[in-house]
Specification:
By secondary structure, the chain is of the alpha+beta class. The chain has a single domain, classed as 2-Layer Sandwich (Translation Initiation Factor IF3), CATH 3.30.110. 34% of the residues lie in helices and 44% in strands. It is elongated.
Length: 108
């Protein structure tokens, strides 16, 4: 089981090997029907659920790609995980997940 944290260490574990930087990214957009619905929501205000769903799905995919890269390096944890988001074009966003792949040992 891969442990993923946004801290530099994991309580109860010792980092025994640093494998290096790992990352996963995805560029994602919503289809035109959801885009039209979202544009109407901007008029009345409130949460734009279509984009919240899009970014949640994109974060999950970027995280999975990062974990896959860490596993290929032989890591069993990723520490200091961060996320970045940028707009690539209108209605399309890139999500980048990155962290340090490590091997940990411990009592948990």
């Amino acid at each position: 089981m891969m442990i993923i944290v946004n801290t530099n260490e994991i309580k109860g574990y010792e980092i025994t090997k640093v494998h290096g930087l790992v990352r996963g990214n995805i560029v994602q957009s919503k289809h035109i029907g959801k885009d039209i619905i979202a544009s109407f929501r901007t008029i009345v205000g409130g949460e734009i659920k279509e984009y919240t769903e899009m970014l949640t799905e994109a974060r999950q995919k970027a995280t999975a790609a990062m974990v896959k890269e860490a596993e290929q390096l032989g890591a069993n944890a990723v520490v200091n995980v961060r996320y970045m988001t940028s707009q690539i074009m209108q209605n399309a966003a890139e999500i980048l997940a990155y962290g340090t792949a490590v091997t940990i040992t411990g009592d948990k």
